[in-house]
Amino acid sequence: MFIEPSITGERRGWIEVVCGSMFSGKTEELIRRLKRAKIANLKVEIFKPAIDIRYNETQVVSHDANAIQSTPIDNSQTILLMATGVDVVGIDEAQFFDAEIMHVCETLAARGTRVIVAGLDMDYLGKPFGPMPQLLAIADYITKLHAICVKCGNIASISYRKTAQAGQVLLGEKDTYEPRCRKCYNEKE
Ligand SMILES: Nc1ncnc2c1ncn2[C@@H]1O[C@H](COP(=O)(O)OP(=O)(O)O)[C@@H](O)[C@H]1O
Ligand SMILES: Cc1cn([C@H]2C[C@H](O)[C@@H](COP(=O)(O)O)O2)c(=O)[nH]c1=O
Ligand SMILES: [Zn+2]
């Protein structure tokens, strides 16, 4: 489990990235860290891409229906405008953001903000997804989570797309994706 660094004296900024396949628990972990920050009376703001309206338009919601209020945005630069005076910034579904999100996170951390980013490291083809490789490179702390392979019960790291639709971006849930281990993913059946 991730334990928050203990900082005494002057406030320091840093970047945490939580990555993994679908159903690996990224959103739950993001919500857990943000709720703990709220308990510590820190000022917290959460952002998600406006395109992600699967469960709710303004909440970040996990597959287990855990939820936290968030602001949907189209452009990562908006975070800088809305995060003045904020202690902790949470960002969900970071794979859908533009490349500028890397600089946004660096700027926030330089201002003394704790930044917690959650996102899919790989798409359904097993390829790096959007700005996630850059975010992982600049992160101070990385947590890679795993789901359970629906085929064999081993640890899953890839999101298998069950439909024939192509294209990197395709919103969906269990109807469209299932987490698989590398062996079951390669069997493609
Ligand atoms: N195959 C699976 N492996 C692990 N968790 C699963 C699986 N299918 C459903 N879940 C549920 O999904 C939850 C994680 O949801 P969530 O945090 O939204 O994941 P993520 O954001 O990584 O997609 C788990 O706590 C579990 O209840
Ligand atoms: C693998 C993959 C996923 N997506 C979409 C499907 C979901 O809407 C989100 C991921 O949500 P989660 O919180 O990680 O479960 O991303 C996609 O558009 N393309 C893909 O290749
Ligand atoms: Zn498997």
Automatic annotation (TrEMBL):
Question: Subcellular localization, per the record?
Answer: Cytoplasm
GO CC term (a single one): cytosol
Q: What is its EC number?
A: 2.7.1.21
Q: Which residues hold ATP?
A: G20, S21, M22, F23, S24, G25, K26, T27, D92, E93, A94, Q95
Reactions listed under catalytic activity: thymidine + ATP = dTMP + ADP + H(+)
The residues that the entry says bind substrate are: V169, L170, L171, G172, Y177
| Enzyme class name | transferase
Please list the coiled coil stretches: none
Q: What keywords sit in the KW lines?
A: ATP-binding, Cytoplasm, DNA synthesis, Kinase, Metal-binding, Nucleotide-binding, Transferase, Zinc
Q: Which residues does UniProt mark as catalytic?
A: E93 (proton acceptor)
The residues listed in the UniProt record as binding Zn(2+), with positions renumbered to this chain, are C149, C152, C181, C184
- Report the domain of life of the source organism: Bacteria
Q: Which GO terms describe its biological process?
A: DNA biosynthetic process; thymidine metabolic process
Q: Indicate where this protein is primarily found.
A: cytoplasm
For this UniProt entry, the molecular function terms from Gene Ontology, in alphabetical order, are:
ATP binding; thymidine kinase activity; zinc ion binding
Q: What is its quaternary makeup? A: Homotetramer.
Family from the record = Belongs to the thymidine kinase family.
The protein here is known as Thymidine kinase
Protein source organism = Limnovirga soli
The opening ranks of the lineage are:
Bacteria, Pseudomonadati, Bacteroidota, Chitinophagia, Chitinophagales
